[in-house]
Fold this protein.
Amino acid sequence: MTLGLFLDIGSTYTKGRVVELERGELVASAKAYTTVETDVTLGINDCLLELSRQGIKEKYDIKLASSSAAGGLRMVAVGLVRDLTTEAAKKAALTAGARVEKTYSYELTPEDLDEILALNPDIILLAGGTDGGNKKYLLENAKKLSRLKIKGTILVAGNRSAATEVAGILEGKVDFRIAPNVLPDLNTLNIEPVQNLIRQIFLEKIVEAKGLKKAEKIVDKVMMPTPLAVLKGAELLAQKIGELILIDVGGATTDVHSVAKGLPTSSGVSLKGLPEPYAKRTVEGDLGLRRTVKNVVEYGQEEFYNSGITSEQLNGYLEKIYRNPTYLPQTPREKEIEKALTRICVKTAMNRHAGRLEEIWTPAGKSFVQYGKDLTGVEALVGTGGPLVYAEEPEKVLAAGFFEENSPHILKPKKPELYLDTEYVLFAAGLLAENNREAGLKLLNSVKKL
Amino acid sequence: MKEVNLVLGVIGADVHAIGNKILEYALTNAGFKVHNLGVMVSQEEFVKAALETDAKAVLVSSLYGHGEIDCRGLKEKFIEAGLDDVLLYVGGNLVVGKQDFTEVERKFKAMGFDRVFPPGTMPEEAIQALKEDLGLM
Ligand code: B12
């Protein structure tokens, strides 16, 4: 038997998955509290101890980890026009598995600079101008950033014609790297080189800075941020079951990934806006079941009404989870409330992730313009993460992400098959696929079709 | 010739795509770096594209007869964005039917366009005008 150990060092828990590599089969799972603040190896060893209690005595052939502990990979994106280079930079950061704390456009103001200092991001992605295009804002913003005491790395991915000059400005003042332009021209999104450099910075600098280097006393390598491992897992799953949407509702955020081209499905529709990445990730920082639950309640009044939940019942439950964020629903009523909250997250996050059609009246009648991805034809919707996996009726929760007849302009999936990552293997498959794609694919057999 | 960025597009709810493609082709062959926004382009899209690409000129087309309404206020938006120096050209079938072109030209110049082209303008005329106005001769 050859065994692989995969660890997700999360902000609360460190989760371990043991995989038999020839058959790509999940053989054991464990979790322990993360201890990155003291010594990350303590939590990892707890996890290993639990696995050996389950009878896993063999030595592991590979031991790989991903991490979202210590705040995850925290970035800000700076561009010129909000829906052009700023949006391109944000997309690149998100698909590299980062948490994008804030985005900035045009010339950075003194307030922006104060805020960036306070946010203290791991990486500042600095874009602006197409190749051969505007240099002024990129140079100006580089100058302003160079005067700050920045601990993180500035990753420059703007106008190629200004790159040398920007390097001159930053040299000796801050840690920086230069990437090819993330938006070389208005119709080309070039995010891969940026993603690769983000990962390189993560490996060379951030793992160390976040106290994760010690983990490498036990594991071979902390390979990447967990969201990137999950995105890679989702891409792999798409090779197996076709284009898909993956949704993960958490305590603070809701992540949606779509692995799909998203081109228009009806004729006479013109595409507008930036091109979309095939594997796209969005993170909704205001949609979560604990830390950000206040907004969720606000967004979904009708959901409670439809489920017959009174405001006393709702407030009573909210009281409980405010006091104790690790509280899990006990009574049927509480489960009903948790379900409603999860549905609101799924629905709102899908509304924002999916593309939309805008109706334009022309002298020759109605015409349509599409922004973002058309996901109406995507045939798989996959749920991952505790709240979806442990929901009583996961199919009803996932259904909140479907296309709605009464808002036909939001291009959500019409009748997808539903899947659940019940064993939480996507991150492990993503890590495993880095050196054994076949085994990674097999491991995805544990993603269950509902 | 040093790289000169141009932005091209058909304004408003106009879907006439053929002239736009021909212009893109001809201007690219003439050595310009063309950023073609295609059809159904809003005023804001022209402004944003010109800003990111550092365009020296923006060529607006309108074929379906609503050019006057669609183009009104465009120059003001360029000024707001700090793009006062960008050349603005407009052409196509700017108004409904066959109106006197000198009158049409006067109207569009008053709106802030640097040059106004009559129906059926050949791309060569546009290239010639660009070279003159941008001092590329
Ligand atoms: C093909 C066509 C269509 C097709 C377009 C298909 C497509 N996807 O492109 C369809 C059927 C969709 C269509 C629809 C309509 N059309 Co139509 N269409 C035409 C037609 C027959 C040819 C246009 C064409 O492609 N010409 C060839 C290209 C190469 O020439 P061009 O577009 O003029 O561009 C050249 C120059 O003008 C110049 N140029 C253009 N822009 C600029 C800008 C600058 C800065 C410069 C320097 C030069 C320049 O360079 C180009 C290359 O040389 C014309 C009539 C005609 N013969 O021109 C009518 C015509 C343009 N259409 C017309 C009308 C009214 C309509 C409709 C409103 C009809 C309706 N009620 O259904 C709709 C509008 C739809 C919409 N939302 O835009 C009218 C416009 C009338 C007016 N302006 O007064 C025309 C003139 C027909 C007519 N005589 O009545 N149309």
Remarks:
- Chain A has three domains: 3-70+210-219, 74-205, 228-449.
- The interface with chain B takes residues 80-81, 83-85, 128-130, 132-135, 183, 185-187, 270, 272, 360-364, 367, 369 of chain A (CB under 8 Å).
